[in-house]
Amino acid sequence: MKIIVAIKQVPERDAQVHINSTGKWIEEGDMQWALNESDAYALEEALQLKEKHGGEVIVVSAGPERVGSTIREALAKGADRAIHIDCDDLDQLDALGVARLLSAAIAPESPDLTLTGLQSDDLGYGQTGVILAELLGLPHASLILHVEKTEAGIAVKRELEEGWFQTIELPLPAVLTIQSGGNKLRYATLMGIKKAKTKEIRRITSQELGSAAAPVVVLDRVFAPQKQKSTQILGGSPKEAAAALVEKLKFEARVL
Amino acid sequence: MNIKSWTGEKSSHPNLEIGLLDEAYRAGVRGLSRVSGSRDGPTLDHVLLLGSNMIFFLPTLAEPRHFAFQEKLLFIALAVSSGFLFWRRFGPILKKILASKKDADFRLFPLGRRMWDFFWEVLCQAKVIRQRPLPGLAHAFVFWGFCAFALVTLNHCAVGLGIGFLDPSGWFGRFYFYLAALFAVACAVGILGLFVRRFIIRPKWLGDKLSWESGFIALLIFLLMATYLAAFYVSGTSSSARLLWWVHTITLLVFLPIIPHTKHLHLVLSPATVFLSRGGFSRIPPLDGDEDFGLVAGTDLTRLVSLQAYSCVECGRCTEHCPAANTGKLLNPKEIILGLRSYLNECGPASAEPLLGKYNSQEAVFQCTTCGACEFQCPVGIEHLPLLVGLRRGAVNTGAWEDDHGAKLFLALERGSNALGMSAAERDKFIQKQELPYFDGSQEYCLWLGCMGGYDPKGREIIADFVRVMKYLGASYGVLRKEKCTGDPVRRLGNDLVYQQLAESNLETMAQAKVKKVVSICPHCVRTIQEDWKEYGTPPEIEHHSEFIARHLSQLPPAESQEKIVYHDPCYLGRYRNVYEEPRAAIRASGQLVEAPRSHERSFCCGAGGGLAFLGEETGARVSHVRAEELLATGASTIGTACPFCNTMFRDALATKGGNAPQLLDIAQLTARKLPAAKPSDATVR
What we know:
The complex is a heterodimer of chains A (256) and B (686). By secondary structure, chain A is α/β, with parallel strands linked by helices. Chain A folds into 2 domains: 2-209, Rossmann fold; 232-256, no CATH class. Chain A is built from 7 helices and 11 strands. Chain B is mainly alpha-helical and 686 residues long. In chain B, the strands form 3 sheets. Chain B has a 4-stranded parallel sheet with strand order 4-3-5-6. The longest helix of chain B is centred in the N-terminal third of the chain and has 31 residues, at 69-99. Chain B is elongated and about 95 Å long. Chain B has helices at residues 3-7, 14-36, 69-99, 111-123, 126-131, 133-160, 171-201, 212-230, 239-258, 266-276, 303-311, 317-321, 333-346, 362-365, 373-377, 384-397, 404-415, 424-434, 450-455, 457-473, 488-493, 496-512, 523-530, 545-551, 581-588, 623-632, 644-654, 667-672; strands spanning 46-50, 55-59, 445-448, 477-478, 517-520, 541-544, 564-567, 592-595, 638-641, 663-666. In chain B, α27 (644-654) links the parallel β9 (638-641) and β10. The chains are: A alpha/beta (256), B mainly alpha (686).
């Protein structure tokens, strides 16, 4: 099975984020970067499928030079080769723009399965994978926790609301967006990193993929969540507290 | 000439006889060699000397005077076959050691440390005696006996060839043979004692299986001594002297070929092992090139590792002190070494067979808390920790180790800043809440918080109290804006990739912030920063807060109470850093110090080290509970700790005690509680 995993480099979970002067993105100066979490699960699922059924895992990622470190991490964990779409203006693109780049890079490979994370930890559109499937003209399913190969194609386990799961079957080729937590992630090893040095990373510029259309979704402004601390402890006897609570729910919160 | 004939002429007068003997004694002192003279002439076999009120019995070692040609031939034939048998077994061992990979970081110089170790640990038998006084002394007597016998044995063999060079009645020969006789008595007593210990007392550390070989060897050693001593009581011309010489010789020649395939190989190897050891404590060698992932297969074994594996004397001191082996885990450090030896014997150093599998178990290797009791105790210079960590490196760096908790820890440190998997924002919040100043290069100390100090509730209390102490003393300090884990847990678990990332990132942060002096509440951080980071740069000077507090004790208020405080030595402060007295001084300044049965360099681990604090539930009894019980049994009302990990382990162990649990306080807390209550102005210092 030939599997492509589209991955994104995002600010490290512990990074201190500062908004830059344009007000539309963050300062990237001394930012530490990491692999997007649900993409890590997509990669893990791909590696496990490869270990079970054989084949090849190719990672593809769009972004500037710095993305190379995340690509090497994916190679170290077991991906066979990589495609780096070199573009310095990723923050100018919307989900459609990114999906166009990815589809242009993925289509010539004609993979059996394309996986990507459910959404990115930074922008969190949750759109890229789904649009990518549309652009490739392939069936897709989102929120996938587990993939099983069947005679006809694949059976996937989807996460629904409130602890419900759904199992559906899809033909191949297909595109899946993977939810975090379905597998246990493997850790990167020194041996993997050393082996990754000899693996192929093909670089293509975004211009070569030729799809610089104007974004349809325009990012207006990014800002830190406003602090809202409005916890109140209602004193008195339980009866009094309950009465005060009802009062507040009715007239302050207006939910009753 | 014997004494009777010599004094015979005046024997009718008892008093005169005494006088004559006195004269004889004086004459003997001046010129006995002249009197007893040549090897072929009459020899003074027994001299009875009576001083004014002392009686001396001065026999002479009897050596057969003459050997027939056939006898000499027989001796040569036996000696050659014994030497041949020895070499047939020892040669392949030496070859395996030398065929192992060279130790990339090995430096013979400076020799001073090596010579001292050799003098102190081998010649003085200091470690052997200090850690097990009675058996140690018995062993030392045997060892010293062997040393004294080197010359005796050489002469003994030379006599067999008719070229003996020590004259038993010459002044040097006489002196030396008497000296050797004293050692022979001590050695015989020693080996008897060791025999009784091994076969009658049978301490469990020696293993369940009785080693008959050891019994046989004890018999041989005893026979060697007995035949030597007996030779003082027979005449050189007698056939008994000849018989004794032959029994002594054959014993020696039987002993020699047994050495290489029994634990007595340590006779030959361990002096070299001690001399050549890496030195330091738990020194983890750097990986050598792109193909080195730690100890994966035989091809990764280095000469030092192989030499150490063959040097094991199977005394079981490592196992006796091992927290894992003592709480029902699979790990037994002695068996790890012997497993490695079996590997070398059966597969050799060129083999691709994994080191973990048939010969040693991966599970056992990952049960080690890296407390270092084994390495500290080992009398033959085996360095267990580089070996155990090396095996872990082999398993982790290649991805062979699969453990949910371990993977979680590694992922937390690949992506985040701390082993607890918390957001760095939590640390920022704590710093703001405590109003800790940021380090800007103007302060004297950089206060390293570590994961416990930055994120753990109890660790934060310790930091808060230590900060009070620093403020009281007027010490200037600041904390770094961002800190990553020092890499201690991943270093000990063998994840070189993450460890290197963390060490390099932290070194860069410290260099940028121009940090010169660091103080930390965590012995693990102190050790890793000071020693382990050296592989990737030049770490700043660092000290543990116990050293800081001890240095300033005179400026701190004296003890207010006489409550009993039992101090628990953290492994990474004691054995790893040799800091025993500073935390004790801090405790003495806060109450009455009580010692646990196992303390100082024999302290028993809390169970947290080696990354184990972050792994799953232990098998067998919990190390922390065993140690907590021991501390409780001292009757102290407070347990004093100097490591936030020990503290957290005991907090958990004492939770089951409810209201009867003693207080659990770090030395910083014990010190801070004597200080006057914080004034509001204190909060705005710097």
